[in-house]
Amino acid sequence: MRAKSLFLATAVASALALAAAPGARAEGIKVGMITTLSGGGASLGVDVRDGFMLAVKMSGRDDIEVVIEDDQRKPDIAVQLADKMIQSDRVDLLTGIIWSNLALAVVPAAVAQGKFYLSPNAGPSQLAGAGCNPLHFNVAWQNDDLPAAAGAYLAAEGFDNTLLLAPNYPAGHDMVNGFKRTFTGGINGEIFTKLGQKDYAAEIARIRASGADSVFFFLPGGMGISFLKQYADSGVDIPIFGPAFSFDQGILQAVGAAALGVRNTSQWNKDIDNPANKAFVEAFQAEYGRLPSLYASQGYDTANLMISAMEKADVSDTDAFRAALEEADFDSVRGKFSFAPNHFPVQDIYVREVIKEGDVFTNRIVGVAATDFVNAYVDQCKM
Amino acid sequence: MSPILVIEQILNGLQSGVMLFLMAAGLTLIFGVMGLINLAHGALYMIGAFAAAAVAGATGSFLLGLAAALAASAAAGALIEASVLRRLYGRDHLDQVLATFALILILSEGTRWLFGSFPLYLDIPDWLSGPVLLPGGIRYPLYRLAIIGVGLLVALGLFALISRTRIGIRIRAGEADREMIGALGVNISVLYTLVFALGAALAGLAGALIGAIQSVQVGMGEPVMILAFVVIVIGGIGSIRGALVGALLVGLTDTLGRIFLPMLFGLFMEPTAATTTGSALASMSIYILMAAVLLVKPTGLYGSAG
C-alpha cells in the first residue's frame, strides 16, 4: 500500500517535472547541497557549506539558488535527499557530500539522471577508476592522494621503519595502501583499529614497544583528537605523521598543545601565498569569525569552479558546461589547479607543521611533499 | 612480546574497565530499582564532559570542572526523571526505549545548540600529565593511574552506600519489591529521583574524566553506552557487583584482544591477513564473551534467576 502510493507520488512528480521542464529556467543555476550538519561529523559539513556560500556571496550573482539539507552522515538519508532534490526541487547540480560511503550511494544515481556532481570532499577510488563519469568532478583530492604524498615525504626524509595505524574500514585501508604505494622505506607493522575507537592506550603501548622510527596514522575527527592527546601524554617520542584530516582548523583547538610540531600533508593551507587565498582567508574570518579549515577551502573552490563554468556556458547545455568545468578556469586558493582526465585534481601537496599563533593552534607550510600530483587511478578511467 | 607490554596492557584494560563501571553502575541501578531501560544514559555522560570542558575552560581549574560535571549531570538526571521518565515506570519497555531514544536526540541537538558543532577542548591538568616510572621499568601515564584510583574509590563508596546506609537499604528494598516499600511509607518518588541523579552523576564523572583524554563532542556517549549495556548483561541486570566484574572483564578482554589477537594470528598467517583477521576478531571479542557468559548463565554472572 505504502510502496504503491510512493510510486504514484513519484510518477506524478516526474510527470509534472517533465511538463514544466522546457524553458523553465533560461539562465542561472539551482544547486542541491547534501552535507553533514548534525551528529559527530558536523564540523566538516558546516565548513564546506560556509566556504561554498561565501564564494557565492562574494561573486555577487543573484542567479544561484542553493538548497541545503542535512544527511546526518547516513547513506539512506543522503539518497532520499538526492531523490527529493532531483525530482521535486529540480536542481541542476549536486554537491556537498563529506563521506565516501555516502558519495558512493548518491553520485552514480545522480549522474545517471544527467545531473552534475561536484565533490567538495569525498574522493573514493571507485569514482576515480572504473566508475568515473563525465558529469562527476572532484574538487578536493582522491582519498589516496594525501597519504601517498606523506609516503613520498617520509621516504625522502630517510625514515626506514614506519608503523602504520588506521581504522579498519575501506577508507582506512585506502589510506594505508596509498601510503605504501609511494613509501620506499621499511614497514614496521600495521595496526587496524575499530572505527570510532576513542581509547588508544593499547595501541600506544604497542608503538612504544615496536622500535619503529616513525608512525604514520590516519584517524579523522574525534579519533584523531583522542589519539594525539593520549600519545602526547604517554611520553613516547617516536615522530608521528598523517594526512591533514587529523589537523584541520576545526579540531586543532580541541587537541591543544598535544599536536604542536606534528607534520601533516595537505593540498591547502591558509598561508599559501596567492591573492585568491588571501582574499578567501580574510573574507572567511570577517564573515564567520573563525579561521577557515581545508574543508572550507574545498567548499570555496567548488563554488568558484561552478561559477567559472556558468560564465562560459549555460548549465542546461550539458556538453558545453562540462567542457567549461574541465577547463577549471578559476583562481583556486591552492594556486595551481587543473583536472586529470578522470576529473580529479592535479595539484601540489604540501607538508604542514602545527604551530601556535597567539592563542590559536594552526598550521604553517614547511615544505612540498609532491608537485603536480596525479591520482593513482587515472589510467583505469575510461570515459 | 615482553612482560612489560603485557603488564602495561593489563593496566590499560583495568583503566577502561573502571570507567565502564561508572557508566554501567548507574545504568544497572536505574534498571534494578525502577525497571527502566535508559538509553539516554550516554547523553548524561556527554553532559558531564561538556560541563567539565566549559567550566575548566573558563576557570582554568580541572577540579572545578569535575565538580561542575557531577553537578550538571546530576541536575540533568533529576530533571529528566521528574519531567519525563516518571510517567514511564508503569509502561512497557518499548515505550521507555522510544522515549529515552527521543531524549538522546533532544539532549544531543540541545548541546550542539549551546556549544556549536566543533569539538571542545578539555585537557589533563599539569599536575596529572605525563608518564611515571612504575617498578619494573614501566612508563605509564599518571592520569590513567589516577582514573583507576578514582574508579576503584567510587566502587568502594558505592558498595558502602548500598550495604551500610539507610538509603542503601531503601534502594535494595526498592529492587526487591517496589510496591511493598511504598506501602511501608517510604517516599518512593523522592527515592527514584535520588537514584536517577546518582546514576547520572556517575555517568557525568566518567564523561569528564574520559573527556580529558578523548574528544569532547556531541554524540560521544553512544558508543560507551552500548558497551555499558554489554557490561550489565554480562554482570547480571540490577547487580552492582555484577557491573564491576562485568566492566573489568569487558575492559580487559577488549584491550588485550585488540593487541594480542593480531599478534597471535601473525604466528601462522602472513602479516597483512593476520592484522585484518585479528582486528576483526578483536572488535567482536566482547560480544563473543557476552554470548559465552549467557550460554552458561542466562541471567548474567550475578543476575537473580527469574
Polypeptide structure, described:
The complex is a heterodimer of chains A (383) and B (306). Chain A has helices spanning 2-20, 42-59, 75-87, 100-112, 125-128, 145-156, 170-182, 201-210, 222-234, 249-255, 275-288, 294-310, 318-327, and strands spanning 29-35, 64-70, 93-95, 116-119, 136-138, 162-167, 187-193, 214-217, 240-243, 263-266, 338-339, 345-357, 360-373. With 383 residues, chain A is of the alpha/beta class. Chain A folds into two domains: 28-141 and 273-339, Response regulator (Rossmann fold); 145-266 and 349-379, 3-Layer(aba) Sandwich (Rossmann fold), CATH 3.40.50.2300. In chain A, strands 6, 7, 8, 9, 10, 11, 12 and 13 form an eight-stranded mixed β-sheet that branches. A five-stranded parallel β-sheet of chain A has the order 2-1-3-4-5, sandwiched between helices. In chain A, strand 8, helix 9 (222-234) and strand 9 form a beta-alpha-beta unit. The longest helix of chain A is centred in the first third of the chain and has 19 residues, at 2-20. The two termini of chain A are 42 Å apart. In chain A, 55% of the residues are buried. The model of chain A is unreliable at 1-26 (pLDDT under 50). Chain B has a domain at 7-218. Chain B is globular. A two-stranded antiparallel ribbon of chain B has the order 1-2. The mean pLDDT of chain B is 91. In chain B, strand 1 (131-134) and strand 2 form a beta hairpin. Chain B has eleven helices and two strands. Chain B is mostly helical. At the A-B interface, helix 2, strand 7, helix 8, helix 9 and helix 10 of A face helix 1, helix 4, helix 10 and helix 11 of B.
